Amino acid sequence: MDPEAFRQLDRVIHEKGRLAIMSLLAANPELSYTDLRALLQMTDGNLTTHLRTLQEAGYVVVNKSTFKNRPLTTLALSEAGRSAFAEYLNVLEKIVQETRAAAGKTNPSDQAGRTS
């Protein structure tokens, strides 16, 4: 297992709240602030803090408009955010693959009974 892979993980994305936000925005072209808050069951303060960090990193774009005379805030990944998230997943996938390979080498009897 190469410990260098862990150092390559993007610290801005790696925190679980921000990882959840990035994952949801990667799977949706745009989400409203209220939908994101409901999906993640976060408080306004917690969600706002994580969004500010992602916005300062250039990963999230915030758009404020009105809908039926009410304020509407929508969020989307920027191109930089989409690229950073793809790279984050690549690094994480490499770590998982290396860990599974190493686990299979060190304890083959554990793998014998598994079907996947």
Low-pLDDT runs: none
Q: What gross morphology would you assign?
A: elongated
Can you count the helices? 7
Q: Mean of residue pLDDT?
A: 91
Number of strand segments: 3
Describe this structure in words.
The chain is of the alpha+beta class. Helix content is 65%, strand content 16%. The protein has a three-stranded antiparallel beta sheet with strand order 1-3-2. A hairpin with a 2-residue loop joins strand 2 and strand 3. The protein is elongated.
Protein traits:
three-stranded antiparallel β-sheet; 116 residues; 3 strands; alpha+beta
Short description:
With 116 residues, this protein is an alpha+beta fold. It contains seven helices and three strands. The longest helix has 28 residues, at 79-106.
Spell out the blueprint of helices and strands:
Elements: H1 4-8, H2 11-14, H3 16-27, E1 31-32, H4 33-40, H5 44-56, E2 60-67, E3 70-77, H6 79-106, H7 108-112
Antiparallel strand pairs: 1-3, 2-3
